[in-house]
Amino acid sequence: GIQVEQSPPDLILQEGANSTLRCNFSDSVNNLQWFHQNPWGQLINLFYIPSGTKQNGRLSATTVATERYSSLYISSSQTTDSGVYFCAVEQGYGQNFVFGPGTRLSVLP
Amino acid sequence: GAGVSQSPSNKVTEKGKDVELRCDPISGHTALYWYRQRLGQGLEFLIYFQGNSAPDKSGLPSDRFSAERTGGSVSTLTIQRTQQEDSAVYLCASSSTGLLPQHFGDGTRLSIL
């Protein structure tokens, strides 16, 4: 089946710093989504981005489907950005999602 | 409702008991998903419903796991004869069309003693 890798596995930032998280996948996908899981375990949708670039405030994401990767960019990081960031890909429609292992981000004050 | 609601939020039970987890999706959302997250691990897809039918059950880890959805709304995930490896947070998500984005509930934290 499709493999999803995320890098880096762990990231520590000082508040105000910028960072880029990467998601690589081994096969073509129909859908890709980025999630943030906060330290309390709640999952928040960030982006639905099967291709192209989207921006939402300090966050932006780019997916290059032909090169099988997606990047999540966090600018001017805040302590509330801490948590685990997952990317999830889907090859069918509403079928078996495959999640990456996540990037654990800690933003220090 | 305003968001995806899951109950109970926490469940502690003895090994061998059956448990039932409930998910109430966002009103009007036709697609519903169950996931599992073991401690320190990524999310694991379990099952997907489109309406009341489950076209993809491939993620259910064993025949002790079953799920149903009635009336195109509430879903229950049942685990029979629970084992310690079933301890995890069980997350439910819904979406309006069966495509992304999905909206997640807060999860049920299941602990098997």
Mean pLDDT score of chain B, rounded? 88
Show unreliable segments of chain A: none
How many helices of chain B in DSSP terms?
0
Q: Which oligomeric form is depicted?
A: heterodimer
Beta-strand content of chain B? over 45%
Cα-atom Rg of chain A, whole angstroms?
13 Å
- Just give the CATH class of chain A: Mainly Beta
**CA-CA gap between termini of chain A:** 41 Å
Helix content of chain A: under 10%
Number of domains of chain B: 1
The CATH class of chain B, by name, is Mainly Beta
Biggest interface goes to: A-B, 23 and 27 residues
CATH superfamily of chain A: Immunoglobulins
Major β-sheet profile of chain A: 6 strands, mixed
Can you tell me about this structure?
The complex is a heterodimer of chains A (109) and B (113). With 109 residues, chain A is mainly β. Chain A has one domain (4-103): Immunoglobulins (Immunoglobulin-like), CATH 2.60.40. Helices cover 0% and strands 58% of the residues of chain A. Chain A is built from no helices and 11 strands. The relative contact order of chain A is 0.34. In chain B, strands 2, 4, 5, 6, 9, 10 and 11 form a 7-stranded mixed β-sheet that branches. In chain B, strands 1-3-8-7 form a 4-stranded antiparallel β-sheet, with no helix packed on it. Helices cover 0% and strands 50% of the residues of chain B. Chain B has 113 residues and is an all-beta fold. The termini of chain B are far apart.
